[in-house]
C-alpha cells in the first residue's frame, strides 16, 4: 500500500459521461474532418484549428516554446500533460511560470488533472512532431505543421487510436489512484484514531470525525482500515477475547468434528480457538490485508490443516464447503451496530449455516441509561468558554450532534438502565437493525441534572439455538443463572472494553429543562437509523420526557 | 455567513486535491479532539503564553506570523502582547473555527487568518518581524511542520526578525523497560496460547509514543540533535549522530527513549520546556525504541550508539530511523551489538 499513493484528485475522475467523451472523441473524429479541432491557446483566449499553429502562436507572442521544453526534458505523454496543465494552471491563476521549467516543476501529480476540460491540445499531443535525434531540439512550429500535413490518412488514424488508448489508460490510472487514495486515507484516519484512543482523549476520533459525506464505497475503506494496531487493541481487550475463548473451550463437545465459519477473522484468533477445541475444519474469512498475518499465525501454530484462510467479502467469496455447523464472528461495533457488519453475518447465516447450526455469539442486547455528570460537562463543554483567557466556544461544534465514545464511570449513571432491544442472532433480520423502541427509567438519588444518555450493549453466548435470553437480563445475571454461561457487557458496571460506551449529550441551549429528581420517571423512544450517505454510520435519535408529559427529541450521529 | 460556507467548501476542495498523505495530515488536524489535547497540554500552551505575554516589549507594534495557527491561541497571545498585526496561517479547516474564536474575543482587527498552504498563500505583508509557531511533532520531527516554518522564515522574516521558539534539542537515554517490553513485544510470542510472531516484527519496528518513568532511565541522557531555527535547513533534518550512553547504575537496557526540549531564547528571560521523562507530562510524551537485545550494563560502562534519521522518500512527514548500538565489555557474555530499523508512520 505504501507505494500506492494516489496520483490524482477525485475531481479528475470524470463522470461516466466524461469518460465516454475521453474515449469516443478521437474515434468520432476519425470520420470527421481533422480540421474541426479547437485548440485553445496556452496563454490567451485565442482558438486554433490545430496544435502546431497554437504552439507557434505561443512561441511568437509569449516566447514559450512548448516543443523545446518537451524535448529538453524528454517528456513522455504524461509529462506533456503535466506541462500543459502547469502552464494553463499558472495562466489561470495569474502566476508567473518558472524561468526555466525543470522536471521538479512537473513532479506534482495534481498536474495530471486537466485545467481545461476536454483540452484538445492533450488529444493532439501525439500529432506533434517527435524530437529530432540529431540535436535539432525545439524544431519550430513550421516543421511541425509540415509533418502533420504530410501525415494525414492512415497515419492519423493510427495516431488517433494510440491517442485514445493512452487516454483510456490515463483514465484507468486516475481511477486506480482514487481508489487507493480512499483506502489509504481511511487507513490513516483509523490509525490516527487508534493513537488518539491510546491517548485516552475523551473525544473519540470516530465519533468526532468530520462527517465528510462519502457516498462512494465505504466498505473499501473499512476493510483496508484494519491495520494491526486495531487488532492489537481488540486482541488485548480481555473482556472480549476471554469471552470467546471461554465459550469455545468450555464447549469442546459442541465444536468437536464440526465445520466452523469465522467471519471477519482478523488475526485468526477465534478460528484457532475453534481448531484447538476440536473443530474438524475452520474457514476464516476476512477482506482486509490482515488475512496474510492470519495465515502466518495459523501456519506458525501448526493449524493449517484445519483452518483455511479466505480473503474477500463474505458476500463474494466461494467457500470450500456448502454448509457449516457453526458461525463464529466478532462483528460488534460501537453502540453495537456502528460499522454495520451484522448484515454480512446474516447473509452468511442464511446462505451457509445448517438449519440447526449455531451462531457464536447468539444474542446481543442494547441498553440506554440517563447520565448526570457535572464534572464531565465542565471539562468537556464549559472548558471551552474560557481557554487561557479566551472564549473558544466555537470549538464546541459537534459536541451535541456527534455521539462521543467514552468510558463513563458508573457514578455518572443517574437512573435504571433500560434494555431497549434484544437480538436473537439466529432469527434476526436486517430490518430489525433499523427501529424505534420505547424506553423508560426511574431516576436515582444521584441525579443532579440530566446531561445526556449512555448507550451500550451486552453479548451472550448460548449453547443452543433454542435458548431464549430475556430482554431485560444483563450479561451478569444471565451468566450467573444456574450453570456456567458466557456473556459480557460493555456497559459502565463492569471492566471497560475497547467499545467504550456511546455518550449522547443533551444540547442544553435548545432542550427544555425538565424537573428531575430522585424517583421521578422518564420515558421516551430511541431510534436507530442508517445515516444517509454513510452505510456504516448510524444516526440515533432519543426522545425523553417526564412520565405522562411532553417529550423532546435530539439526534446524534456516529460516523 | 454564506460566504464563509463557500470558503469552507473551497478549502475542502483544496484539501481533496492534495496528495493523500498530506491530506490525511491536514485532515487529522481538523478533528477538534487534537486541538483540545494540545490546548489542555499546559506545559506547551503555558510556555508559549509566557514566552509571548511576558515579552510585550518584544511584541509591541510588531508584525507577527503564526505558522500553523490551529485554533488561533498563539495569535491571540501575540495580539494581547501588543503586536501591531498578526497573520495566522493554517491549511486545515480548523481555521474557520479560529476565525469565529478571534471574532468573539474582539481581535478580528488585529488578527488576519488565512486558510492555505504557507507556500501558496498571498501574505498581506511582504515581511514580518516575528514568527511564532508550534510545529513540533512526536520525536520532534514526526509529522512536524518545521519545513513550513523554515519556508516562512526564508521568505517572510525580516533580517533581524525573531522566531518563537528558536531552539530545539532531541535527547536520548537508555531505559530499563522489561515489564512493558514484555507486554508490548513479548505479548505476541504467546497470544492466548498461540504463536503470533508475525505481528512481533511489526511491533518492534514501530517506535512507541508513551510516557516513561524517570526511574526507568538507566543512562545519562545525551543530546543527539540541536536545531537553531535561525540557521537550520530542511536538509539538516536527515541526520546521523554517533553518541555514547553512560550507565548510571547496574541494570538492563531494553530500549532507548527520546524526547526534546524547546527554548525561546529571544525572551527577556529565556523560557524553555522539556518533554522528557524527568518533568511534567506533555501530549508529546516520549518516544521509545525497543532494541532486539537486552543489554546488561554495569555502572560507568558506555554503550556506543548511533542514530540515523531521515524523512521517508514517499511521505516526507514519516520518518525512517536506524539505531545502532554496541556494548564493549571485558565480560564476553555481556558483549552485544546490533542495528534496528524503525518507521514512524
UniProtKB/TrEMBL annotation, chain A:
<feature type="region of interest" description="Disordered">
    <location>
        <begin position="195"/>
        <end position="214"/>
    </location>
</feature>
<protein>
    <recommendedName>
        <fullName>type I protein arginine methyltransferase</fullName>
        <ecNumber>2.1.1.319</ecNumber>
    </recommendedName>
</protein>
<dbReference type="InterPro" id="IPR055135">
    <property type="entry name" value="PRMT_dom"/>
</dbReference>
<feature type="compositionally biased region" description="Basic and acidic residues">
    <location>
        <begin position="1"/>
        <end position="10"/>
    </location>
</feature>
<keyword id="KW-0175">Coiled coil</keyword>
<keyword id="KW-0489">Methyltransferase</keyword>
<keyword id="KW-0949">S-adenosyl-L-methionine</keyword>
<dbReference type="GO" id="GO:0042054">
    <property type="term" value="F:histone methyltransferase activity"/>
</dbReference>
<dbReference type="GO" id="GO:0005634">
    <property type="term" value="C:nucleus"/>
</dbReference>
<dbReference type="GO" id="GO:0035242">
    <property type="term" value="F:protein-arginine omega-N asymmetric methyltransferase activity"/>
</dbReference>
<keyword id="KW-0808">Transferase</keyword>
<feature type="domain" description="Methyltransferase">
    <location>
        <begin position="260"/>
        <end position="357"/>
    </location>
</feature>
<feature type="region of interest" description="Disordered">
    <location>
        <begin position="1"/>
        <end position="35"/>
    </location>
</feature>
<dbReference type="InterPro" id="IPR025799">
    <property type="entry name" value="Arg_MeTrfase"/>
</dbReference>
<dbReference type="InterPro" id="IPR029063">
    <property type="entry name" value="SAM-dependent_MTases_sf"/>
</dbReference>
<dbReference type="InterPro" id="IPR041698">
    <property type="entry name" value="Methyltransf_25"/>
</dbReference>
<feature type="coiled-coil region">
    <location>
        <begin position="156"/>
        <end position="183"/>
    </location>
</feature>
<dbReference type="GO" id="GO:0032259">
    <property type="term" value="P:methylation"/>
</dbReference>
<dbReference type="Pfam" id="PF22528">
    <property type="entry name" value="PRMT_C"/>
</dbReference>
<dbReference type="Pfam" id="PF13649">
    <property type="entry name" value="Methyltransf_25"/>
</dbReference>
<feature type="domain" description="Protein arginine N-methyltransferase">
    <location>
        <begin position="363"/>
        <end position="549"/>
    </location>
</feature>
<dbReference type="InterPro" id="IPR036236">
    <property type="entry name" value="Znf_C2H2_sf"/>
</dbReference>
Automatic annotation (TrEMBL), chain B:
<dbReference type="InterPro" id="IPR029063">
    <property type="entry name" value="SAM-dependent_MTases_sf"/>
</dbReference>
<protein>
    <submittedName>
        <fullName>S-adenosyl-L-methionine-dependent methyltransferase</fullName>
    </submittedName>
</protein>
<dbReference type="Pfam" id="PF22528">
    <property type="entry name" value="PRMT_C"/>
</dbReference>
<dbReference type="GO" id="GO:0032259">
    <property type="term" value="P:methylation"/>
</dbReference>
<dbReference type="InterPro" id="IPR025799">
    <property type="entry name" value="Arg_MeTrfase"/>
</dbReference>
<feature type="domain" description="Methyltransferase">
    <location>
        <begin position="64"/>
        <end position="161"/>
    </location>
</feature>
<dbReference type="InterPro" id="IPR055135">
    <property type="entry name" value="PRMT_dom"/>
</dbReference>
<dbReference type="GO" id="GO:0016274">
    <property type="term" value="F:protein-arginine N-methyltransferase activity"/>
</dbReference>
<keyword id="KW-0949">S-adenosyl-L-methionine</keyword>
<feature type="domain" description="Protein arginine N-methyltransferase">
    <location>
        <begin position="166"/>
        <end position="329"/>
    </location>
</feature>
<dbReference type="Pfam" id="PF13649">
    <property type="entry name" value="Methyltransf_25"/>
</dbReference>
<dbReference type="GO" id="GO:0005634">
    <property type="term" value="C:nucleus"/>
</dbReference>
<keyword id="KW-0808">Transferase</keyword>
<dbReference type="GO" id="GO:0042054">
    <property type="term" value="F:histone methyltransferase activity"/>
</dbReference>
<dbReference type="InterPro" id="IPR041698">
    <property type="entry name" value="Methyltransf_25"/>
</dbReference>
<keyword id="KW-0489">Methyltransferase</keyword>
Amino acid at each position: 500500500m505504501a507505494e500506492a499513493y494516489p496520483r490524482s484528485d477525485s475531481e479528475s475522475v470524470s463522470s461516466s459521461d466524461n469518460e465516454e467523451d475521453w474515449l469516443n472523441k478521437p474515434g468520432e473524429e476519425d470520420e470527421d474532418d481533422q480540421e474541426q479541432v479547437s485548440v485553445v491557446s496556452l496563454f490567451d483566449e485565442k482558438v486554433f484549428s490545430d496544435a502546431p499553429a497554437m504552439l507557434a502562436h505561443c512561441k511568437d507572442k509569449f516566447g514559450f516554446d512548448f516543443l523545446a521544453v518537451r524535448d529538453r526534458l524528454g517528456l513522455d505523454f504524461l509529462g506533456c500533460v503535466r506541462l500543459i496543465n502547469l502552464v494553463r494552471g499558472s495562466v489561470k491563476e495569474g502566476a508567473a511560470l518558472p524561468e526555466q521549467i525543470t522536471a521538479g516543476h512537473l513532479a506534482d501529480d495534481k498536474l495530471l488533472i486537466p485545467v481545461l476540460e476536454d483540452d484538445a491540445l492533450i488529444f493532439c499531443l501525439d500529432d506533434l512532431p517527435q524530437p529530432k535525434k540529431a540535436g535539432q531540439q525545439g524544431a519550430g512550429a513550421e516543421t511541425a505543421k509540415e509533418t502533420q500535413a504530410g501525415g494525414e490518412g492512415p497515419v492519423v488514424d493510427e495516431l488517433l487510436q494510440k491517442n485514445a488508448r493512452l487516454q483510456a489508460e490515463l483514465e484507468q490510472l486516475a481511477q486506480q489512484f482514487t481508489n487507493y487514495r480512499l483506502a489509504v486515507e481511511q487507513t490513516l484516519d483509523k490509525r490516527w484514531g487508534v493513537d488518539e484512543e491510546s491517548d485516552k482523549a475523551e473525544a473519540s476520533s470516530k465519533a468526532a470525525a468530520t462527517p465528510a459525506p462519502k457516498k462512494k464505497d465505504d466498505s473499501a475503506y473499512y476493510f483496508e482500515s484494519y491495520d494491526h494496531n486495531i487488532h492489537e487493541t481488540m486482541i488485548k481487550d480481555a473482556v472480549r477475547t476471554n469471552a470467546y475463548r471461554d465459550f469455545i473451550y468450555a464447549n469442546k463437545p459442541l465444536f468437536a468434528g464440526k465445520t466452523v465459519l469465522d467471519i471477519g477473522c482478523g488475526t485468526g484468533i477465534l478460528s484457532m480457538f475453534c481448531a484447538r477445541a476440536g473443530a474438524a475444519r475452520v474457514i476464516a474469512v476476512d477482506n482486509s490485508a490482515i488475512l496474510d498475518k492470519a495465515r502466518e499465525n495459523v501456519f506458525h501454530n501448526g493449524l493449517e490443516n484445519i483452518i483455511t484462510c479466505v480473503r474477500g467479502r463474505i458476500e463474494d467469496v466461494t467457500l470450500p464447503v456448502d454448509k457449516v455447523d457453526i458461525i463464529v464472528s466478532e462483528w460488534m461495533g460501537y453502540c453495537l451496530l456502528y460499522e454495520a457488519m451484522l448484515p454480512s453475518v446474516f447473509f452468511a447465516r442464511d446462505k451457509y449455516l445448517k438449519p440447526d447450526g449455531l451462531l457464536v455469539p447468539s444474542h446481543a442486547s442494547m441498553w440506554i441509561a440517563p447520565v448526570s455528570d457535572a464534572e464531565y460537562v465542565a471539562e468537556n463543554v464549559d472548558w471551552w468558554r474560557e481557554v487561557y483567557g479566551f472564549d473558544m466556544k466555537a470549538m464546541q461544534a459537534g459536541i451535541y450532534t456527534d455521539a462521543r465514545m467514552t468510558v463513563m464511570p458508573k457514578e455518572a449513571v443517574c437512573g435504571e438502565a433500560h434494555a431497549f432491544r434484544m437480538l436473537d442472532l439466529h432469527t434476526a433480520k436486517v430490518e430489525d437493525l433499523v427501529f424505534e423502541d420505547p424506553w423508560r427509567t426511574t431516576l436515582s438519588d444521584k441525579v443532579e441534572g440530566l446531561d445526556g444518555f449512555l448507550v451500550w450493549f451486552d453479548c451472550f453466548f448460548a449453547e443452543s439455538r433454542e435458548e431464549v435470553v430475556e430482554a431485560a437480563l444483563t450479561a451478569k445475571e444471565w451468566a450467573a443463572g444456574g450453570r456456567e454461561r458466557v456473556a459480557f457487557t460493555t456497559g459502565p458496571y463492569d471492566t471497560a472494553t475497547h467499545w467504550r460506551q456511546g455518550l449522547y449529550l443533551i444540547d442544553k441551549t435548545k432542550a427544555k429543562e425538565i424537573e428531575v429528581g430522585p424517583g421521578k420517571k422518564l420515558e421516551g423512544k430511541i431510534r436507530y437509523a442508517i445515516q444517509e450517505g454513510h452505510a456504516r454510520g448510524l444516526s440515533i435519535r432519543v426522545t425523553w420526557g417526564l412520565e405522562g408529559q411532553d417529550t423532546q427529541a435530539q439526534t446524534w450521529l456516529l460516523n | 455567513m454564506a460566504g464563509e460556507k463557500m470558503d469552507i467548501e473551497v478549502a475542502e476542495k483544496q484539501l481533496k486535491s492534495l496528495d493523500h498523505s498530506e491530506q490525511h495530515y491536514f485532515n487529522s488536524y481538523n478533528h477538534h479532539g487534537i486541538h483540545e489535547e494540545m490546548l489542555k497540554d499546559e506545559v506547551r500552551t503555558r510556555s508559549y503564553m509566557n514566552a509571548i505575554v511576558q515579552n510585550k516589549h518584544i511584541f509591541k507594534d510588531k508584525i507577527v506570523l503564526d505558522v500553523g495557527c490551529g485554533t488561533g491561541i498563539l495569535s491571540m497571545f501575540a495580539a494581547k502582547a501588543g503586536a501591531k498585526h498578526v497573520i495566522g496561517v493554517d491549511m486545515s479547516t480548523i481555521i474557520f473555527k479560529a476565525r469565529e474564536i478571534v471574532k468573539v474575543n474582539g481581535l478580528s482587527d488585529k488578527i488576519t487568518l488565512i486558510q492555505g498552504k504557507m507556500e501558496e498563500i498571498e501574505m498581506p505583508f511582504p515581511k514580518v518581524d516575528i514568527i511564532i509557531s508550534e510545529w513540533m511533532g512526536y520525536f520532534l520531527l514526526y509529522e512536524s511542520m518545521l519545513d513550513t516554518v523554515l519556508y516562512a522564515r526564508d521568505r517572510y522574516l525580516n533580517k533581524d526578525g525573531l522566531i518563537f521558539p528558536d531552539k530545539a534539542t532531541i535527547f536520548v537515554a537508555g531505559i530499563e523497560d522489561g515489564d512493558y517490553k514484555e507486554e508490548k513485544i513479548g505479548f505476541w510470542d504467546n497470544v492466548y496460547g498461540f504463536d503470533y510472531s508475525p505481528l512481533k516484527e511489526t511491533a518492534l519496528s514501530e517506535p512507541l509514543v508513551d510516557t516513561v518513568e524517570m526511574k526507568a532511565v538507566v543512562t545519562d541522557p545525551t543530546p543527539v540533535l540541536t536545531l537553531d531555527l535561525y540557521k537550520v535547513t530542511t536538509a539538516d533534518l536527515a541526520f546521523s549522530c554517533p553518541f555514547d550512553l553512560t550507565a548510571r547504575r547496574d541494570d538492563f537496557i531494553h530500549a532507548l527513549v527520546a524526547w526534546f526540549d524547546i527554548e525561546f531564547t529571544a525572551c527577556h528571560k529565556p523560557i524553555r520546556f522539556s518533554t522528557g521523562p524527568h518533568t511534567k507530562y506533555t501530549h508529546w510524551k516520549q518516544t521509545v525504541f525497543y532494541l532486539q537485545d537486552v543489554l546488561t550494563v554495569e555502572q560507568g560502562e558506555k554503550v556506543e550508539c548511533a542514530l540515523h534519521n531521515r524523512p521517508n522518500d514517499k511521505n516526507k512527514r514519516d520518518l525512517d530511523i536506524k539505531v545502532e548500538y554496541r556494548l564493549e565489555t571485558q565480560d564476553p557474555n555481556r558483549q552485544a551489538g546490533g542495528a534496528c530499523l524503525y518507521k514512524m508512520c
